[in-house]
Amino acid sequence: MADTIGAELAEQATRALEDSAGVDVLRNLESGGFPGAAWGAMEALGLGAALVPEDRGGAGLGFLDIVPVLEALGRAGAPVPLAEGIGAAALLAAAGIEVPEGVLTFAAAGAAVPWGRHAGHVVLVDGARVALYRAAALRWTEGTNTAREARDLAEPTGAPTAEGTLPNAWGAEAAILVTALLRSAQIAGAMQAALALAVDHANTRKQFGRPIGRFQAVQQQLAVFASETSAVSVAAAAAARAADRRGLAGAAFEIGCAKVTAGEAAAKGAAIAHQVLAAMGITEEHSLHHLTRRLWSWREEGGTERFWSARLGALVQGTQGALWTFITDRDEEPAA
């Protein structure tokens, strides 16, 4: 059922983005503009409340259901703050706070806020404490990441409009766990799009009288790219499934594994894509660099490979020699 729902939602999102987004939209976004038409198309689908329980006015879906949607966003270069809105709404609902309408985003307290300058409301998460602020009531310091996406620092200047506490199943690191899961799935989608560009170029660009994709060295590199892309998609889905079964806190191991896999794969995939396309891929007119700059940026968000590798090492050490049982019995553990 989850596969069917996810595929249907991803198809809707893909159609909406094809009609309202593209390289021109990304270029305008990276210059500081807001993609109003693309956002309106995505907002009309009602995906922002995907993870909000039905009794709170949402769709009541699980993390696994939205992975295909997140991948679709990644394939398009994430031209709208839908992933951030989905995460923010889920955090608010879990803390018992009503989800406001409009552009919504979230961040751990003190961290840069994705899309901050464009948001109507911002969710700041400090441990298990969730606070909802009107964006206009925050003091902003604007910034960008390598992808030229808005990453702004927010300083509260007064009391939030609402606040609550996350349940134990979400844990005290919910903000970074949600971010890691969202970015892992988006990286999978961006890698899929970059791989498609690289394969198309290899099949059409000729050198020495034949397409460069006929050369064994290029084929081997593209095979590595494809395997890394598949690994990220599988890891993101596994992490989402674990989060649905055991809650975010209980899925920290799988989420960490997904983020490490995504980060390492993003570095390899971006390098291969630019090797195949050579100088063409970094020209302003080409779409590849919009994807690879996001790959480089998203691997830094929600915890780097170094951050999660240290966490995973600590988790493994804590098994006290029962690593096999720790791994194989995890699917049987329900969320608290």
What does this structure look like?
With 336 residues, this protein is of the alpha+beta class. The chain has helices at 2-20, 23-30, 36-43, 63-75, 82-94, 174-204, 216-250, 252-277, 288-298, 305-317, 323-328; strands spanning 104-108, 113-114, 121-126, 129-134, 138-141, 151-156, 162-165, 206-207, 210-211. 54% of the residues lie in helices and 11% in strands. Strand 8 and strand 9 form a beta hairpin.
Strand order of the largest sheet: 1-3-4-7
Number of strands: 9
Give the H and E element order. HHHHHEEEEEEEHEEHHHHH
Low-confidence stretches: none
Question: End-to-end distance, in Å?
Answer: 23 Å
Strand content: 5-15%
What is the overall shape? globular
Can you tag this structure with a few keywords?
single chain; 336 residues; alpha+beta; four-stranded mixed sheet; three-stranded antiparallel sheet
